[in-house]
Amino acid sequence: MANSRADNVIVFDMDSTLIQIECIDEIAALTGAGAQVAAITERAMRGELDFEQSLRERVACLKGVSVNEFEKIFNPLPLTAGAELLISTLQQAGWRTVLVSGGFEWFAERVAAALKLDEYYANVLVTQAMTLTGDVGEPVVDANYKAMQVSRLKQQAAHVVAVGDGANDIAMLEAADLGVAFCAKPALRKVADICIEQPDLSLLLPELKKLGLIS
């Protein structure tokens, strides 16, 4: 992964931020456990459950799913409106772009490739013979891990902006120089410097211009 220095860095959550869906809910729909997993996801996003515990409980429900099924979820790639414009504009201005997701690496890898992101970090779904075992690899990308990555990036850049939507992004936004809540849960909006309420990531561009972070 790239380690070049940049004046500014933007860090994104993935599910319901860079993409329109929650991947774990979509995988669960393939197993018939959709309602059960969606309920756990919603409680976690509201901050009512510890993220790692809820992640492990949800992934356990996915045991037996074939990785080949993931293609159905990502065809076509469900990018959020404005994501490509926002990222390409920032990249042209010399920004470094990073994805740090509590979601899954299979999906993060494809989002990062499509958007030409510099780095990506996400949870690994353990597989055996291309089938999910119901386990999550280590380390778990949780709120603390996200904040740790933001803190690392702050040592390498003049400004770090973090963008997310749920309670698992609170520490990340607090660690950043500028925290952006995107169509977010109330818990995240409380700690954000900027709230984007419409589902269009390019709406962040005029906000960054006001702050003099882009011309």
From TrEMBL:
<feature type="active site" description="Nucleophile">
    <location>
        <position position="13"/>
    </location>
</feature>
<dbReference type="InterPro" id="IPR036412">
    <property type="entry name" value="HAD-like_sf"/>
</dbReference>
<dbReference type="Pfam" id="PF00702">
    <property type="entry name" value="Hydrolase"/>
</dbReference>
<dbReference type="InterPro" id="IPR050582">
    <property type="entry name" value="HAD-like_SerB"/>
</dbReference>
<feature type="active site" description="Proton donor">
    <location>
        <position position="15"/>
    </location>
</feature>
<protein>
    <recommendedName>
        <fullName>Phosphoserine phosphatase</fullName>
        <ecNumber>3.1.3.3</ecNumber>
    </recommendedName>
</protein>
<dbReference type="InterPro" id="IPR004469">
    <property type="entry name" value="PSP"/>
</dbReference>
<comment type="similarity">
    <text>Belongs to the HAD-like hydrolase superfamily. SerB family.</text>
</comment>
<dbReference type="GO" id="GO:0006564">
    <property type="term" value="P:L-serine biosynthetic process"/>
</dbReference>
<keyword id="KW-0028">Amino-acid biosynthesis</keyword>
<dbReference type="GO" id="GO:0005737">
    <property type="term" value="C:cytoplasm"/>
</dbReference>
<keyword id="KW-0479">Metal-binding</keyword>
<dbReference type="InterPro" id="IPR023214">
    <property type="entry name" value="HAD_sf"/>
</dbReference>
<dbReference type="GO" id="GO:0036424">
    <property type="term" value="F:L-phosphoserine phosphatase activity"/>
</dbReference>
<keyword id="KW-0460">Magnesium</keyword>
<keyword id="KW-0718">Serine biosynthesis</keyword>
<comment type="pathway">
    <text>Amino-acid biosynthesis; L-serine biosynthesis; L-serine from 3-phospho-D-glycerate: step 3/3.</text>
</comment>
<dbReference type="GO" id="GO:0000287">
    <property type="term" value="F:magnesium ion binding"/>
</dbReference>
<keyword id="KW-0378">Hydrolase</keyword>
